[in-house]
Amino acid sequence: MTSRSVSAWIDEFLADQTLRANSLIITIYGDAIAPHGGTVWLGSFIRLVEPLGLNQRMVRTSVFRLVRENWLVAEQQGRRSFYSLVAAGRRRFEHAYRRIYDAPQNDWNGEWQIVFIGLPTLSAQERDSVKHDLLWEGFGLIAPGVLAHPQADNVSVQQLLEEAQVRDKVVLMRAASVGGFSTRPVKELVAECWKLDTLAAHYNQFIARFSRVLRAFRATREPDPQQCFLVRTLLIHEYRRVLLRDPLLPAPLLPLGWPGGAARELTAQLYRLIYRDAEAHLLATLETGDGPLPEAAPYFYARFGGLLEPAQPLASV
Questions:
Q1: Which of the four, 86, 196, 198, 243, has the lowest number of CB atoms within 10 Å?
Q2: What does the angle CA 188 – CA 189 – CA 195 come to, to the nearest 5 degrees?
Q3: Strands of 39-41's sheet, edge to edge?
Q4: Residues 203-219: pLDDT tens digits?
Q5: Domain contains 40
Q6: What's the domain count of the chain?
């Protein structure tokens, strides 16, 4: 049963936000299609995303660009085109989306990972590329040519440097704060380097917007599967946009009342509430070369600490 309040929320969201087709398609592939095998017929995908304001021409143009950018690969079967995440695109997606679905690590030993990229061994192009990648990983620029993070994944950083072919051209070190890691100067450095005030404002805006639709779904006894899919997609798309700006700093370095935890809890609650009906819509809409979309892989149900099977009725959540 279509909820008027949810429908109004969706209409308002789509009217207020400018959604980039390429980015939205990657969100849908990563969140919804990858757990179901990762390959779908383009015609069924066009039907799926039309309510999000993406017409056929926009989708075809975007998937062509994503193929060119090595995110998707196309396969022709007769007159039908099927698109899949390429292996490299899947790895990039899985790395990014671990930050969404997995619980953040709160333990920290006070150490920092430091990367020096100001050495003459790097060309200007290599330096800009590595800096961009490290900032995307959550590093902060603490001085010219020096980036740091207090909780970076060492394996991911080394892999990043190897893929950029600069591992022998930069200096990677570990360091520790002297005199305590929660002192005022360290917090001031963190707040400035990572622009925490701006990030907090984005989190608070996200919380205000999606709290409304969470309340609307909680008041709905028979949710509409298409509405559930649309809201789930917008939820993950917007949360991803905010979260990928977040360096995921340890709690001792964050200001009091940091809204990141509340935003994550809201995302998890809403996702758990609507994912089953959203899945029903996906299974009813998307097609593969072998017929209907297969059921989701087991790893899908590990998201947000575990999706309940079977899901509780909305009225009791």
A1: 198
A2: 85
A3: 39-41, 80-85, 72-77
A4: 999 999 999 999 999 99
A5: no
A6: 1
